[in-house]
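dumping the sequnces here before i forget
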Amino acid sequence: MTKAISDLNVSHKKLLGQQKGVLCPCNPSMIQTCNAEKALLNKRLSSCNLQLKSVLPQRDSLHQQVNVLRSQMASVTKQRDTLQSQMNVFAKYQNDGWQYFRGSLYYMSTTTANWQTSRDYCVSKGADLVIINDAAENNFARGFKQGIWLGLYKEGSRWKWVDGSYLSSSVSYWIPKEPNNTGGREDRVEIQYFNYFNCWNDSPQTNKNYWICEKKVV
Ligand code: 2F8
Ligand code: CA
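..and the predicted 3d for all of it:
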């Protein structure tokens, strides 16, 4: 029994010794080194924090710039895609013999037809019979040197373009004494005397003429 108690005391002392070692594993010089390292690391940390603080506004400004650039890029990409598809349309029509003049593509027919058949052809190509908006376009149209249908027809007593607008007296190029409604059935307009600036004549829609289609592209 006495031996057991003495053994227990020994064990107890041993454990106390071990506990002391766990709580304080380092010797004083190690603690000093550790503290010095800790101080150094704290110094570095403060310096990093300072740098970070000075860099944060730059980061925010860069974020803003990135956002602006992203939205500019989206808009430029959209414009590029629109232009690309316009160029594709343009190339396709040019391949089919259409020619470009001041924002429109024009097709000059190679055969003749009455007014409605001529118009149907243009509409089937995503266009319509030509609308003359000014003297330059009138000159362009008569430059084909054929009798051609224009997209101009009579509605009641008024002349109307195929886009629904009415003929303006300041942009009309009638041959002198036209329109005269010969025979009371002249309800469509043609370029007749293409050698003259004033070259329009009213004519029956059943007549056969060449025609010009116009497709606006811009
Ligand atoms: O003299 C002008 C007159 O000439 C022809 O009729 C005789 C034209 N007819 C056709 O083109 C069918 C008229 O429209 C024109 O006014
Ligand atoms: Ca006439």
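Residues 178-180, 182, 186, 201-203 surround calcium ion (ligand 2) (CB under 6 Å).
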